[in-house]
Write a structure and sequence with these properties.
This protein is mainly α. The chain has a two-stranded parallel sheet. The longest helix has 23 residues. The chain starts with a strand and ends in an 18-residue tail after the last helix.
């Protein structure tokens, strides 16, 4: 995603980078992209903590859902375009950094949990009769 207040720059970068396999998404909401880009790092640390505590997927889904609601409120407070929260710059980035072992922030969150509190996820399977 590319962000700039200058529409001509957005269009020029888009024409240079776009291929039939790669699409650039453009926005003039520069502040929203910057703010959400920083905020998602904090939330992905929280996701790492949740996973390391052994909490199940529903807990993480509830957490991410509440994060999105909080980011919406944050955006309204600062006058950020509502569409920015659902863009690749916010929601897309939040999801990948909150679920990927390749994310530094997610891994950092996992490291914050003391070893004695780390738990493996318990999966309950029903026995077939």
């Amino acid at each position: 995603m590319i962000a700039s207040k200058d529409i001509e720059i957005l269009n020029k970068i888009n024409s240079i980078m776009k291929t039939k396999y790669f699409k650039m998404y453009k926005t003039d909401d520069l502040f929203g992209v910057e703010l959400y880009g920083a905020a998602k790092n904090v939330y992905s640390i929280g996701a790492g903590i949740l996973d390391t505590l052994g909490l199940l997927d529903n807990t993480k889904a509830a957490y991410i859902t509440r994060v999105i609601a909080e980011l919406e409120r944050l955006g309204k407070t600062f006058g950020i375009k509502e569409s920015t929260v659902y863009s690749l710059a916010c929601l897309g980035d939040l999801l990948v950094t909150s679920y990927s072992d390749n994310s530094r922030n997610y891994k950092y969150g996992k490291c914050l949990v003391p070893k004695k509190k780390k738990k493996k996820k318990k999966k309950k399977l029903k026995k077939k009769k």
